[in-house]
Automatic annotation (TrEMBL):
<feature type="domain" description="DUF2007">
    <location>
        <begin position="5"/>
        <end position="63"/>
    </location>
</feature>
<dbReference type="InterPro" id="IPR011322">
    <property type="entry name" value="N-reg_PII-like_a/b"/>
</dbReference>
<dbReference type="Pfam" id="PF09413">
    <property type="entry name" value="DUF2007"/>
</dbReference>
<dbReference type="InterPro" id="IPR018551">
    <property type="entry name" value="DUF2007"/>
</dbReference>
<protein>
    <submittedName>
        <fullName>DUF2007 domain-containing protein</fullName>
    </submittedName>
</protein>
């Protein structure tokens, strides 16, 4: 089962809150931060909130996110 990006966030505290909320609802979630962009001068690329592909719909409902995201 593949991990998919649920949301890209630019606030570390918010990212942790969202991850914790998903975990509390029984939805495994992970945060990925890519520091590579800042090493080459690209700025902060954001924090990716990742969930299992089968959990996307439940995660969106749990966090009250729109059902469709253009980047995925």
């Amino acid at each position: 089962m593949a991990l998919v990006e649920l949301e890209t966030l630019y606030d570390v505290a918010l990212a942790e809150i969202m991850r914790s909320a998903l975990e509390a609802d029984g939805i495994p979630a992970m945060l990925f931060e890519s520091n590579f962009g800042s090493l080459i001068g690209g700025g902060f690329p954001g924090i990716r909130l990742m969930v299992l592909e089968d959990d996307v719909a439940a995660a969106r409902r749990a966090l009250d996110l729109p059902a469709i995201q253009a980047s995925n």
